[in-house]
Structures are given as C-alpha cells and as structure tokens.
Fold these 2 entries.
Entry 1:
Amino acid sequence: MSSVIDGFAVVLEPANLLYCLVGVVIGMLIGVLPGLGPAATIAILLPVTFGLEPVTAVIMLAGIFYGAQYGGTITSVLLRLPGEASSVVTVFDGHALARQGRAGTALGIAAIGSFVGGTLSIVALTLVAPIVAGFALDFGPPEYTVLALLGIMLVSTISSGGRIRALTAAAIGLLLATVGRDDFTSAERFTFGNLSLADGIDFVPIAMGLFGLGEILYNLEERHRAVQAPTRVTNVWPSRADLRQSSGAIGRGSVIGFVLGILPGGGAVLSSMAAYALEKRRSKHPERFGQGAIEGVAAPETANNAAATSSFIPLLSLGIPANATMAVIFGALLIQGVTPGPQLVTEHPELFWGVVNSMYLGNVLLLIMSIPLLGVFVRILRVRAAVLAPITVLITLVGAYTVNNSVFDIGLVIGFGVLGYLMKKAGFDPGPMVLAFVLGSLLETSLRRSLLLFDGDLTGFLTRPISGVLAAAFLAVILLPLARALLHRRRPKPPLPDATERDAGAAGRDAGSGAAGREAGAAGRDVGSGAAGRDAGSGAAGREAGAAGRGADVGAAGSDAGASGRDADAAGRDVGAAGSDANAAGRDASAAGSEADAAGRDADAAGSGVADRRKAEPVSQSVRRDLHPEESE
Amino acid sequence: MKITLPAIGLAGLLVLAGCGGNLGSDGDSGSTAAYPERAVTLLIGQDAGGSTDLIGRALADPAGKDLGQAVTVQNRPGANGAVAAKELASAKPDGYTVMVFVGSLAYITPLAVPADQAVDVNDYEVITGISQDDFVLIANPQTGFKTVQDIVAAKRPIKFATTGVGTGSQLTQTLLFAQAGVDATAVPFNGGAPALTAVLGGQVDVAAVQLGEAKEQIEAGKAVPLVTFATQRPSYMPDTPTATEAGFNVPVQQSRAIVAPKGTPKEVVDRLRAAFQKGFADQAYKDFNTKRLLTANEVDGAALLQQWNGSLQTYRDLVAQHKIDLSAK
C-alpha cells in the first residue's frame, strides 16, 4: 500500500507533472489529426524518451495513448472523419449531433465519459494488477509460449483487414523475428553476414516505418476526403437530460472497456465497437442510433479510454503487450533498460505505481483541457497536409537515426515505411505484423525453453494449470469456428429465410430511412450471426467472452463488419446476400437487401477516410459462406 | 554525422601528426598536450541500463573531467559487444573512439561461436582493466539444495538457467556440473533478470547469476546461494563457499576493460589511462562499485591481456577435458 502512495509522490515531481501534461496534449493533438494514431506517434517520439527517466518517459507515452482516445472524437464529431480507429463508431451519432448543432454536447459528453471510464479503469487496475503480478512468478516459459500464441491468434482474428490478410501479416512478423543470432546455439540466421542484423532487426525502426512513415504516406492520399471544419463549437456542457441519458452507457462502457482492454488482441478499437453495439442492443429505441443518440457517443468514448488504461495491465505485470500501441511502449521500456514482466511491480514499484497513478492526473487534465482547447484543435484541423507531412517525416527519420546513431536504421524505417504504405493500400493491417514480431521471439525462445524443461514432451503444456487453461482457450479459438463451419455443412440447408427476411426487411427500413450505412451494417451482422443462431449484441458480446476463454467463439466475423462504419459496405453487401437468399421466399426482402446494399455503399463513400472496401471482402465472404454453405462445397 | 565524424577525426589526426613532425623531439609532449581537442566517444556494446552500460557511464563523467573534454557514451548493442568491437576496429586510432570491452566476449564467446564470428581482444589496444563481476549459483528454496553436494546426492536430472549462450553463467554451471557428474540441462535466458525469475518461479532448479543481481533475493530468503565462483569469499556472503573450496575448478569471472583501436599512439593510450585512473579514484564511482558488488581490477593493458588470454586458454582446456560443447542446445 505504501508503494501506491509513493507512486503519487513520483507523479507529483515537477518533471513528471510536466510530461504528463505534454503527453496528454500531444495525444489529443494526434487524435485530432486523422490517420496518425497513437502507435505511430509513440513510435516517432521514442527517441525523445531516451533522454528521460524511465518513469517520466512512460508517463508521457501513456498520456499520449489515452489522450488520443479523446482527441479522435473531435474529428469524428466535427468532420465525420475518425481521427483515430477507436473513434470510428463515434462518427455515427457524433456527427449526426453536430449536424443538429449539438457538436458541443457530443464533445462534452465524450470528455466526461472519457474521464469516468479512464478513472474507473485505473481504480480497477490498481486493485487487479498486483494480483496478476502475484501470479506472475508462476508464469514460466510454457505459460509465455501459450500466451504469445494466443495473443497473435486473437489479434489476427479480430484485425480489421480480414483473417487471411491478418494471418499473412502475422506470419511475416514471425519471420522477421527470426532474423539475428539464435539464442540457443549462437548461430546467425538470415543476417546475410551483415553485422547490423546480427542481433535481429530492431523493433523501433519497424514500428516507426510501419506506423509512422507508412501512415503518413497513406494519409497524404486520404486526407482530401475530409469535410470542412466548422469554425465555432458552443454549448459544451451537456444538459441534465443528456447526462441522465448517458449515465448507463458510461457505466457499461467503463466495464466493457476495462475487460476488453486486458485481453491480448483487445484494446480501444474493439471495446468502442462492442460498447456501441451493446448500447444499441439494450436501447428501447434502437432506431435513434445513427440519428444523434447521445449514448452512441458516450458508450464508445468511455470504453476506449477505459481500455486504453487497462491494456497496461498485461504489459506491466506480465510483459505481454496486448496491442500494437502497447508493443511500442514495450519497446520504449526496453530501451530504458526496464524489462516489463513479473518482477516489475516488486523491482520498480516507483515506475509501476508512478505510471498507474499518473493516469488519475492525466484523466483530470484531459477533462480540464479538452474544453478550452477545442478552438485550437479546430484550427489545427485546417493545417494543410502538405505542411504537416514533410515535418513529420523529417522528425521520424532524424528520430530513427538518434536511437542507435545508425544510418542502417534510417534505411530500415524507409523500407518498412514503404511496406506499411503498400500494406494499407492492399488492405493489410500492420498491427498483427508488429505484434507478431514482438511476440515472435518470445514465442520461439519460450517454446524452446519449455521443450528443454519438459525434455521434449509436449503434454507438459497441458498439465501445468495456467498454461493448460490458456492452451484450452487457444484451441477453442481455433477449433470452434472450424467445428461450427463443419456442422453447418453437414446439416441440411437451415430454414433461415424467415428470420433473414425479417432482418433484411429491418435493414431495408433502416437504410430506406436514409440513415448512415451503420444501420445496414448492424443489420448485416444480424443476418450473418442470425444464421449462426445469434443476434447482433450477443454476437459481439459472445465474441468478447470467447476471447476471455469462455466461449472463444471468434468465428462470427460478420459482427466485425457490423459495428464498424468502414465495413458498412461489406455489411451492406452481406445484407444483399441475405436478401438474395430470402429471395427464394419473397422479393420484398431482396429489394430491401439491395436497398441496404446501396445505403451501405453510400455510407462507405461518405463514412470515413480510413475506409477501404477491399479490407472488408473476406468478412463478407465468410458471412456468405455461412449463409450459403452449399456454395463452398 | 557518419561523414563528418571521420572527417573531423582525420583533421585531428593531421594536427597530431603535424605536431610530431614539426617539433621533432618535443613532438611527444606536444601531441599529448594537444590531445584531446574534442569529445571522446565511449562505445558500449550492450543495451542501455545493463550493468556494462552503467559501469561505462559511471566512469565517463569523472574521466571526462580529467580530460577536459566530454566522454560521450554511445550504445551499440549486439552480439555480446561484437557489433561495437567491429565498429571500433574500423574507427580511426586517434583516441577519440574507445569502448568498454567485456571479458566474456574475449574468453568465453570464442568457445561458443564459429571462428569467423569470434572477436580477439589482442587486436585492440587495452587502455585499462575496470572491474570484475563474480557469479553465484542460486537455488529455489523448494529444491532443498543448500550445497553443491545436495545436488549430487539428489541423484536426479536437474535444469539450470543461464543468462545466455557464451556467457560466464553458462560456462560456470556447465563446468561445475560436468565436474560434479550431475545430469544437467541448460536452459538459456536473455540476461540475468529472466534467469533469476526462472529460479524464483521454480521453472528451473538453479541458475548462476552475477552477485549484484541476486543479492536482494538472497537477502530476502527467496534464493539460496550454494557456491560463488569468486576467487575469495565475497565479504557480504561470508558463509557461502567458493567453488575452489567446494572442490571444483571453475575459475570464471565477468570482467571489463577499456580498449582503443589497434595503432592508437602510446601517449594517447597513456593519457586515457591516466584519465580513467582519476575516474577510479572518484568517490561516487567507488560507491557505485560497492553497491553493485564489483571487485576492482584496474590493471594496465599488458596485465589485462595476460589475464584474459590466460582465461581463454584455461577455459579451452577445461571445455576440452570435460568434452563440453557450449554452442550445442
């Protein structure tokens, strides 16, 4: 307990206070600037942190992470352009509110939700992290092996680009992780005699290239899609009615965010989508969503901040980064000579509690700063990409050089930057690649260590309690979707036209009412998971639970599409598919389906700058397979 | 930077050479007075924050004060220092680039890696030895092991954690268990902290780590020291026998030295040695050594080369005698 209080003493040191503030402000700024996410920013700023004390560095980086979750809201609401992947769902109701002249209310409720979600999550983190760390000594090579495998699988399964692309990216990441000297035999692998590769490829240039340079290049293409920013935002303080309406959403969003943030592969993006889906599912008037429902802003914005906080738990207490941003912070700690892991809480309590407690303060700062700074952020939105991009590129390259004073690293950053750009163009999410790269060497060395410990007996993984449970979860993640697919093939054609007709009809109504393609997306998911005997809300929730190891039912790929506006196109087409299926029973549904399809495509065009139709294709294909099992045989 | 640094270095060399040529017999003192004219770079072949890095940084400050020029630390981690060593070998021998060389790279790594990847310390000018790190063999209390004889008497195969391939941690334990006739399997980890964690968590039976790394856990009773590989009992661990006392021949220490590229003028080497000796005398540096449980080994270049070359020969013989292959598994 005393170390918790000592942590506050660390936070209140002037330098730490300052860097907490700096981090939060930078985070909000980059959240505002579309495209350049927290992972990229943190990667770019890594060299800056090198000269700081470890605790100060992580306090700043953490501030960037949760600050960005709020900053992304601003562009979602004002420009209909998510500044941040975790704010994609905020676009639907946030921008609708803005069009009704209530942009201030939306931003106000998002700030309050962010504060509440973040703060509740820290309280939970304070209580949970030491317990996890207490188990940490039981985490040996076998546990790390399974955990690393689980993390890579989960992140690949729920990544935005579709499963095949994500697994391909992860495989490349694993391959890159094998470069360098073999830890067990000292033999050099894939170094081509190049001494710079003797210890493997450095993580920092990979992150800076893929996230930093790659994103900048990609965004230069995308930015022109933004709509003009309004010049003034008023009435930021929400009314009593708004608060009452949002309080439940904020509470539930906090819980969802906290839980999903801890899971490997989870984090802010996933939790904002899940929270939105849950609110819509619970609502007595789901049709209000997309028309400017205040809960539709409160829930995802609360959840993404809660998740940004709780995703520090696996990193700080086990040394496992749950998502790409955490992977970059992991790299930052390693540069500082601090290895995140079981010993961190006991050996560096000042770092652990300093970082945790700084988040209380950071959330207060976030709340205070967000409102007065709104005008500044709105003005920043008007800075031209032609000015911003070259500056960022320059900072990135100079930064890459200073980490190791290595020209070789600059080459790596450029190489990975081009790769990152091409990946985005082709609909590959670089996230799984980076995470697989980070977890790859952990996976390999832990596996080989485990085999030494078990004398080569693989059953050892199953007989140890923690690794056994994790292994079961892992097998469930892989086998359940397969088993379900097989079951569906065996069974005669399911009698789904009835349900499908209704759902597609609903989709048609929603779409016909001229709302954003989100509705179509949600309906598409209804159809997709309906075939699997699920509906939208419980589909998403079931998937989360699956990740937690209960159901491990990640297979409902269609649900991915539903929550996300940029996948609305695919969802729309899924509805179309469902519609044509229902066609056997009646033409109405088919018409509704194609109407939804059109609305979906509409939404895609209008929806988000991050949109990429090709990304969504595998999703729609898998849903279609669900609906038409006979087709794939 | 890559272009300008050598250029400045070349300019510096020309100045030095010019002094020597023009002033004739006064040349030696003249060039010594001219050196150093700018900051000296101290390469460190390990990650920032590790023990080698901390030692280098603790010395850089006071040495720089004596030189009247900053000694700037640059980390070039990789291959136990081989990356930095190769960079140093290609640097100008003008005294503006020096490096902290770890002993294991000179006398243990060559036993574990192919000959073309090994680094030979005799290819460098040694400025001074620094200090010595001793290893201690620790056990998880649940194993019940209190001495090496307990392990032998247990008559069961054991697993031991090492801090990596080609490290003193690997060599000490491999030699010890070979001599004790214990069936032992090495499980390599990356550095002292994870090896220590593996012992504390009971994933392995024992591990050899550096004294300073294990001190806290030993004092807390979470790790039992069985034997140290020091030449004499460390003062804070009076009850733990050395390997020699326990009847084994395992003379392994980690050791560090400051080296310069081959061909660095003698007077520059002497000037640097004088500066680092000022650093050794610095109270803050002495406190640092005490705190990290380091033993001073501030010998001159010739003595250090004798120590290290001797160690390499000793280990080569011991490894051959016990038919050990450090690179396998």
Note: Chain B touches chain A at residues 1-2, 47-50, 53, 74-79, 82-83, 86, 109, 112-114, 117, 159, 164-166, 185-191, 193-194, 196-198, 200-204, 327-329 (CB under 8 Å).
Entry 2:
Amino acid sequence: MKKLTWKDDLRPVPFLLAFFVAYVLFTIYPIFKGMQMSFFNWTLIEQQEFIGMTHYINVLSDPNFWEAFGNTSLFVLLSTPTMVILALGLALMANLNTRLQTFFRGSFFIPSILSVSVISFVAIFMLQPYTGVVNNLLQAVGLDAEPFWLATPSLAWVSIIAVTLWWTVGFNMILFLTALQGIPEELYEAAEVDGATRQQMFWQITLPQLLPIGRLILLLQVLASFKVFAQILLITDGGPGTTTRPIILYIYEMGFQRYDLGYAAAMSYLLFMVLLVLSVIQLRLGGKEGRML
Amino acid sequence: MSQSVLTTKRDPFRWLKVSIAFLSALAFLFPIVWMFFVSMKPEGTAASSAIDWFLPPYTFSNYVNIIAGSDVFLWIWNSFFVGAVTTLLTLVLTSMAAFAFSKMRFRYRKALYLFFLAGLMVPGEAMIIPLYEIVGSMGLLDTYAGLILPGIAAPLGVIILKSFFDGVPNELIESARLDGCSDFRLYWSIVLPLAKAAVAAVGILTFIGSWNNFLWPYLAIISEALYTLPVGIPMFNSNYSETYILPMTVNAIASLPVIIAFLFFEKQIVKGVSFSGIKG
C-alpha cells in the first residue's frame, strides 16, 4: 500500500471533528477538571483556594465515606450474582419453544424501559405497611408479620435489590437470549447422535457456550452496580438513617446540598479510580467478547 | 426458527417449565398492571386489602384531572424533544466517526480509535461534579442545550456502527470512488443505507437512554418548564404524600407511551440491546 500523506490525514477531519470536540469537552475534559477541583477548596460561594491533598486525606478518614462505600460494595456483592443467575434463568424461559415466547420475552423486558421514577414510586406504594400490596399478599398466604420494608435497614436493602432486579434484569436477559440463539445447532445434533440426555446437553453444551457472555455480563454488571443511585435516592433516600446511602448519593449530597464541590470531586475521583481498576480487570479477564480495546 | 434438536426431543418437564415461565411473566407484569388499576380508582379510595385495588369502582376522572391540571404533557414533550435531538445528533456524529474509522486510511487511526474507546471506561455518574461545573461555566445549565450536549458523544455508538460499516464490502467503496463519488456521498448514499438496521438499533437505544436519564436532568434543570418526565414525576409525587392515586395516574400516563412504543418497536429494541453486548 502506498505511503499515507498529509492529504490522507486531512480527509477524515470533517467526519471526526464534531464527535471529537463533543467527546473531549464532555467526556475527557471532566476527568481533568474533576482532578483540579479535588485539589481546591471549591464551593459555590467561597473563594477557590488550592489546598493540595487535604480533601483526599479528609475523605479517607471520613466514616460517612466508608459507610457509603461499604453500602455500595454490599449492593454490588448481593445484587450482581443474583442478577446474572436470574437473567440466565429468564433467558432460558424466554427461549422455550412455545407460542408464548414473545409474551415471556416482552414481560421480562418491559420493566427495563419504564422510568426509574415510575418504578420507584410504584415500589414505595407496594411496600407500604398495612395498605401495601406486598404485605397484603404475604398475609394472604398466612404470614402474620407486618414488615416495615423501607424502615428496617436489612429489609430496605432487600427491597432496593428486588426492585433493581425487576427493573433492570431484562437487558441482561436479552444478552443471554441472543447468545442462546447463537449456539450452533450442530452441537446439539452431534450430542443427539451420541445419545446425550437433555440434562447432559444443558450442562455440557449450553452452559459452556454461554460462559463468555456470562462473564461479560457479570463484569459489566459490577461496573453498573457500583454506580447505583437513582432508585435508592427515590425509594429510601439513603435511609433509614444512612444505612442504604450509596457512594454516588453521598457525592451528590456533599456537592449539591452542602455545596462542597471540591470534597465531592475528591470522592468522585476515588470512585473513578475504583471503577477504572474494575474496567482494567474486565479488559484482562473479559476474553475476546469482553475486550473493548 | 427451524426445528431444533432441543425442541423435537421430548421434554418430560416441558409443561412445568412453561408454567413457571408463565408465572414469572405474570410476576414481572404485576406491578405495572397494578399501577394501571390504582390509577383508575376514585380519589380518596382507601383500600384495606390488595384485592380492593383490582375491583370496581373505576373512574377516568383522575386522568382528566391530571391531563387538565398538571404539566405531565409538558414533561413528556421535554423528554421527547431532548431524546429526539440527542438521538439525531448522536447518530450523525457517531456514524460519521465510524465511517472515517471503517473506510478511510490515515495516520494515527488506531491511536485515535483507542482514544475514543477509552471513553467507555469513564463512568458518567462519577464525573457529574466536574461536568456540572463545565456545563455551568458554558452558561448552559437549565437550558435544552445543557440537557442534550453532554449525552451526544457516546463511544459505544461508534463501536457498534464501525463493526457494521466494516461489513460493507470495500470493493463497493473502491468502485464508487473510481466513479468520482465524494466521501460524503459514499457515507450518506452507500454505507449508511446499507447499515440501516444497526443505525436504527443504536438510535433506539440512545433514545431510551435519554428518555429515562434521571441523574443529569435532575442536576442540570431548575426551571419547571424544562423538567423531563423522570424529574417531573418525583416533584409531582412529593406534593401528594397523603393520597397515592393521583401520582399513580401520572405514573401510568408517563408509562403508556413507552409501553406502546415497545410493542411497536420490540424487534429493534431487542436488536439494539443485543448489539450493546458486542464490544470490539
């Protein structure tokens, strides 16, 4: 091939320029701006003053930060494996060869397209003690207790995770379903010839074939779950007390309710670092399917 | 779909699996169905048991009240407008970039592509503080532009579209070039039409993302006239802590357009989601 000249270099410019400008301005520049802010005493009113690592030192000794970080980690640990297994189960159901296939797929997916605001409000109303439909159903099956779902820390977590699963599992279900439908039919035919049972086919063909997409879903889900925010803000607002407050909610409170943007930026930066490490792990472990770069 | 081994081979537990799937589907739909029933109850209804919500009396007066007396249509319009403009700009920007990466040779192409892909690793949620500061210093807080612009340069779109443009045969491109076809016409009249399905899928995914975006509009908007649906709903609901019925009507009205759109575009939505799982 002939050597590239400056003319070749100029040709893509009109195609790349607009994307480049928007990307640098709203994706790359915030990274540097955030770093700058985290070194300053940056509030909405006060004079901006360079204070070096002070915010970072304060954040790392702030028990609220660690509590929020622990809450977020707890959410990731509890919700992610459940999410992946549930998504797989639903995909297997949606892949059953029946006339109801489209109905199954649609039902599992529809909650994902509803607004988080709708989802959260419906959840709050359903989980009300005495009048909520969940407690009513529990009583209908003979449970006598009257759980205060959103006022008890452990139950608040259960509620948030259940709502999150219901709301978002559809996306992962579709990814599993696509992979299921992409498994070469010959594999099953060959197994059939060898006299394999359905169970053997599932464990030795279906599951191994789904492993790469499953790993990708798991890693993407960990990254996504670390950023949990909206449904918690709307359902419990971090309560009772601060027992369900995730890291982004704490960042939000410091930044936009107490106007300490520098402190909030420092916390954002620490979160960014954690997510970056997780992304790199993903690139390493993701295999061919998970390789983004 | 052709008859697969798994479907022809008799499965003794088939009825059980289908039944479980059916019950699961009902469980997934239950809160939504329930929402619509509650939205039709007369104001001030006190339901002591779950079944009461599903039984008459029903009324449409809540819908009439909400439509006449709230800004729900304004929020729907704002969400639609922001979503449509965001989607249109995203599609133009990402498809042009993807075209350059797929069909042009230039120095540092690979490095630039990697630079764009690296954006996938930048978590928007962790960058809201500096983004707020930047958009604020541009004077765009509390404007449509401030809602739209931060969302338009999405690397995922470039990746998905590039992988589709790569499928357009290079011989086609070369022969068109020999006929004197300009780069822009090549992009607009040859490559883009051939990748229609992928463009539609990316567009739908972008639109859903924007339509449901909560955090950024929640921060960037102060004026009620600019509220999008996800921001308007909680603001409305917080004014009604005593009765749940009117807020539920707002939720139902907000959900109807997306549910109808889903029934129309299910294929494209599913395709879009499955593309988003393909990386690199």
Note: Confidence is low (pLDDT under 50) at residues 289-293 of chain A.
